């Protein structure tokens, strides 16, 4: 049974492996039918590239930079962009059918296991060495080799607070669970007095993402605070902490922390609701920081979820992209691997430059690019990282899509009230009975 709960912890703390590339999902517009001329152009492309970026975060350049690079080098690249939540299914299907493109973005972590074992990922050691990544991104595979080139910033679980609503309701950012319960009560009191309908937490679990992210934050923080001297990375959650965390989620629902339709609200809509000043708090990830700045200016704060600070004020940041950052793989069957590698290197350099300009940290050593504008919200995020006692990887980044989807389904039952805490734990145990 002990083994079960160690493995259970690894799969329960489920966020999005691809949070570095996912922000709020934007439905992809149907692609127009290609003309015969366009189809011929695709066939004549020197390389085919698959990306998985939603349009609002972290910026259009993540998608269109390939075209700029190809144009500058006088080559033709067929770039296909898909929604972030399609990444795993499309890549796994392409692996089975043998239709992987020359270059493809992946979520990293153990997702690559079967791809590497199948021999479809070209080793990219020479490119990693040439690019000179910082220690945070220079992480080889278990065999000591590299099979993907990191191209995304590390992503962290954070909480955003609406500055306008905090002032309007005379509220302070909550640091403890008791503070949070008081804030929720205060929001309800304000609504009743003023005939408004603000929610305490902008939250949507229609796609199962935010619900699992919130469970990540609560479970990890409780385990770390309970055993501050026994920190492992990733954190392994015991049964007692797991049950306590599930009870806290139920408690939030009972207190009315979320809007009434939160089970029918998706991540994109939840972020939009926050931007429109409909909620005091938003539980999400650091990759949407620029998106919020573009849409809200300085009308919000960046912080942590209540309870993530321990008694002496220390805290740890939760990394949402696991042991290997989302990056680029080169297909071992690519006819021009040298060209693919050259484009990938240029892409990473340019992406890093663009990120630094908007206040992000560098992925590459000895970068001489300076931020064009460092806003208060960037300073807040950097301060969180600088003052953290450390970072901890969300164990969900190590799991495959089937396990993640199963956990999301069970967690949704918990949020919706279709399962109480005990039923939830029993369902989890039944789902992983083979690991006993």
Can you tell me about this structure?
The chain is of the alpha/beta class and 436 residues long. The protein folds into two domains: 13-153 and 323-372, 3-Layer(aba) Sandwich (D-Maltodextrin-Binding Protein, domain 2); 157-321 and 395-435, D-Maltodextrin-Binding Protein, domain 2 (3-Layer(aba) Sandwich), CATH 3.40.190. Helix content is 44%, strand content 11%. It has 16 helices and eleven strands. It has a five-stranded mixed β-sheet. Strands 6-7-5-8 form a four-stranded mixed β-sheet. Strands 9-11 form a two-stranded parallel sheet. Strand 1 (47-52), helix 3 (61-73) and strand 2 form a beta-alpha-beta unit. Helix 15 runs antiparallel to helix 16. It starts with a helix and ends in a 5-residue tail after the last helix.
| Class of secondary structure makeup | alpha/beta
Give helix % range.
40-55%
**CATH homologous superfamily descriptor of the largest domain:** Periplasmic binding protein-like II
Order of helices and strands: HHEHEHEHHEEHHEHHHEHEEEHHEHH
* Count of individual helical segments: 16
Strands ordered across the widest β-sheet: 2-1-3-10-4
Poorly predicted spans: 1-42
Provide the β-strand percentage band.
5-15%
The major β-sheet equals: 5 strands, mixed
Can you name the CATH architecture of the largest domain?
3-Layer(aba) Sandwich
Topology:
Layout: H1 2-12, H2 36-43, E1 47-52, H3 61-73, E2 77-82, H4 87-97, E3 103-106, H5 113-117, H6 125-131, E4 149-150, E5 157-162, H7 163-168, H8 177-194, E6 199-202, H9 209-226, H10 239-254, H11 267-275, E7 279-285, H12 289-296, E8 300-303, E9 317-319, E10 327-330, H13 337-357, H14 376-387, E11 391-393, H15 401-416, H16 421-431
Helix pairs in contact: 3-13, 9-10, 10-16, 15-16
């Amino acid at each position: 049974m002990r083994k079960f709960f160690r493995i259970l912890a690894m799969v329960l703390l489920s966020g999005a492996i691809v949070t570095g590339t996912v922000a709020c999902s934007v439905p992809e517009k149907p692609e127009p039918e290609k003309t015969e001329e366009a189809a011929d152009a695709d066939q004549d492309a020197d390389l085919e590239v698959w990306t998985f970026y939603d349009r609002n975060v972290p910026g259009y350049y993540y998608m269109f930079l390939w075209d700029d690079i190809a144009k500058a080098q006088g080559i033709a690249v067929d770039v296909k962009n898909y929604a972030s939540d399609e990444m795993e299914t499309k890549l796994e299907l392409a692996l089975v059918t043998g239709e992987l493109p020359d270059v493809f973005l992946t979520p990293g972590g153990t997702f690559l296991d079967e791809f590497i074992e199948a021999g479809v990922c070209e080793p990219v050691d020479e490119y990693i060495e040439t690019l000179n990544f910082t220690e945070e991104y220079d992480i080889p595979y278990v065999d000591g080799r590299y099979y993907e080139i990191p191209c995304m910033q590390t992503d962290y679980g954070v909480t955003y607070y609406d500055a306008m609503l905090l002032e309007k309701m005379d509220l302070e950012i909550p640091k403890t669970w008791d503070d949070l319960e008081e804030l929720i009560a205060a929001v309800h009191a304000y609504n009743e007095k003023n005939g408004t309908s603000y929610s305490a937490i902008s939250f949507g679990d229609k796609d199962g993402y935010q619900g699992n992210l919130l469970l990540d934050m609560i479970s990890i923080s409780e385990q770390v605070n309970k055993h501050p001297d026994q920190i492992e990375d990733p954190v392994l959650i015991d049964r007692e902490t797991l049950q306590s965390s599930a009870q806290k989620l139920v408690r939030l629902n009972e207190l009315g922390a979320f809007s009434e339709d939160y089970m029918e609200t998706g991540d994109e809509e939840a972020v939009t609701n926050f931007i429109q000043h409909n909620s005091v708090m938003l539980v999400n990830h650091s990759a949407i920081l620029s998106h919020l700045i573009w849409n809200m200016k300085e009308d919000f704060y960046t912080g942590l979820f209540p309870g993530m600070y321990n008694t002496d004020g220390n805290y740890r940041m939760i990394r949402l992209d696991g042991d290997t950052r989302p990056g680029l793989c080169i297909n071992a069957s690519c006819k021009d691997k040298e060209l693919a590698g050259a484009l990938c290197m240029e892409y990473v350099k340019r992406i890093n430059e663009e990120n630094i300009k908007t206040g992000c940290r560098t992925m590459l050593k000895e970068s001489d690019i300076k931020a064009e504008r460092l806003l208060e919200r960037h300073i807040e995020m950097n301060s969180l990282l600088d003052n953290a006692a450390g970072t901890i990887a969300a164990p969900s980044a190590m799991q495959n899509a089937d396990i993640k989807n199963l956990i999301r389904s069970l967690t949704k039952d918990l949020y919706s009230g279709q399962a109480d805490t005990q039923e939830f734990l029993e369902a989890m145990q039944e789902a992983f009975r083979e690991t006993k």
